[in-house]
What we know:
By secondary structure, the protein is of the alpha/beta class. It is built from 15 helices and 17 strands.
Amino acid sequence: MKDEITYLAGVSQPAAEPLKPFAQPVMDFLTGLSAAIRKYNGSYPEIKAFGFWIRKTHLEAFARRYEGRSVRLGRGVVFHMVSSNVPGLFAYSMVFGLLSGNSCVVRISSKSGEVEQRLCEIINELLNQPEFAFMKKRISIFSCDREHVVVKNWLSQCEGLVVWGGDGAIKSIRKMDLMPEGVQVMFPDRYSICILDLEQIKAMDQKERKELARRFVNDTYAMDQNACSSPQFILWHQSRETADQEQIRKSWWLAVAEEASAYEIDAHKAVKKYETLSRYAMEVRGIEKIWQYKNLIYTVLLSEIPDNPQKLRGKWGLFFEYAGDWRNAIHSLAVRKLQTVTYYGISRKDLTDYVVDHGLLGVHRIVPVGEALNLDFIWDGQDLLQMLSRELFWEE
């Protein structure tokens, strides 16, 4: 129902007073939350991953990065609106807001699933403990329809707005009555790629290939390939095509299929993935070959990179491939929506220098295979701490 709202954690009206970034009450609460999640015996790896991400040593590493830069304070209340296709993303967004010195209001989609529900229960249980009464007044998590009046009210009065969603959702939010002086941090649709050096893959022994395949699976299947940073496009850096090179690529995908064998591909996912593959087979030019590795992996080898590569979106183990020199191919792949480039076997410096020297429109992150999903304060080219806090300036 459009008029229904369910409060899941914290209070309905949080305090607005800003804190310094990485304030001790916030650090203590998040450390306690990490400990509570470690005791959680449920079967959701997304919750365990979040608990590990907010471990004390990781938060302290974030804090050290900003030490001595400037004197900063939070902005007040930051309102978070997060898409439902990446389980647990709302919690990461909230942490960025809290660590930046703000109170946080978080709207969770009414379509959210068990991960969100259980994580909110853990958060609320902790907030209800006496030692975290201060933090309870700084957090509000609720679920409702996007058109609910409470959403519109927060949009008009929040000092900061963070939106993770599709382009359409962001456009509709920008049409609403937003607080004029409030900062807006928008994360629209993105796509990502992976660059693999074929000769380096060929030179790996079985143990090394297995480990790299495991890391690749973590980048992709962990979020059903839904995360904006999960690669949909695989760029094979190689010279001319030979039967030997084709066999190397096949051996790689067999290693990936083995590492992904525990992934649950239910009937819904299998049917949707096959429907998507069939549609692309009819619509996309330059398809050379399509391979299937059981029901886990479909790969589509292209002879050319299409004009709008960001529209080739794989899910549940559907990947597009192109073989050639990465320097030539990345010009076509680096459209504005290209977010993350994971890589193996090529130099990070060479890749970074190439992006900068050629002024490519896309590419916001360059990380090794296995680190695609590692959320950071710097995301989509924006420093969240600087955006969600304000710097106090003075002159001697």
